Amino acid sequence: MKKIESLVQKITDKAIKGDARFIVQLILEWPKIVGPHLSTLTHPEKIIFKNKIYEDGRLHVQVIHSAYAFELSMQQDTLIARINGFFGRELVGKIILKHGGHVFKTLSPTTAISVTPAHISQDILKAVNHVGDFDLQQALLSLAKHLP
Fold first, then answer.
1. Which of 54, 123, 134, 141 stands the most exposed, by the fewest C-beta atoms within 10 Å?
2. Annotated domain spans of the chain
3. Quick one: which H or E segment has residue 42?
4. Diameter of the chain by CA atoms?
């Protein structure tokens, strides 16, 4: 009897082809690649390659706030090295940071949710991000959605 995990892996490997497989793997493994703290502040969106060699791509990353985007821009070389080290190839050559769209919280290596800042003030988001317990963060964000 095969493990469900290996069966799912085979199905997704066949279904996800081309450059899509890299962004899917980045999304699933993001906390392992960038660490738990950065994974709560960022979320990979897409990779754009110039050709089908799948090297030296531009990785677009969503960032919770412009202040974090500036901080991450100073660490871009380190992040690129971590990503490329994870894949064992020069997959990413540049990171494009975008801020202000969504806040992404990683629930597990395979699940992510987003919270629209229009419903929650930036002050609340900043305060919640400093809470160490993930379950408490989620509860506070859930409550914040219902504030006027």
1. 123
2. 4-109, 116-148
3. strand 42-48
4. 53
| Model pLDDT for residues 72-96, shown as the tens digit of each residue | 888 899 999 999 999 899 999 999 9
Among the listed residues 34, 54, 55, the one whose alpha carbon sits nearest the alpha carbon of residue 44? 34
Q: How far is residue 108 from each of residues 25, 32, 100, measured CA to CA in Å?
A: 13, 11, 23
Mean pLDDT of the region 12-34 = 77
Residues sharing a CB contact under 8 Å with residue 5, sequence separation 6 or more, in sequence order? none
Q: What is the pTM of this model?
A: 0.60
Where on the phi/psi map is residue 100: left (φ > 0), alpha (ψ -120 to 50), or beta? left
Ramachandran category for residue 76: left, alpha or beta (phi over 0 → left; psi -120 to 50 → alpha): alpha
Class of domain 4-109 (CATH, top level): alpha beta
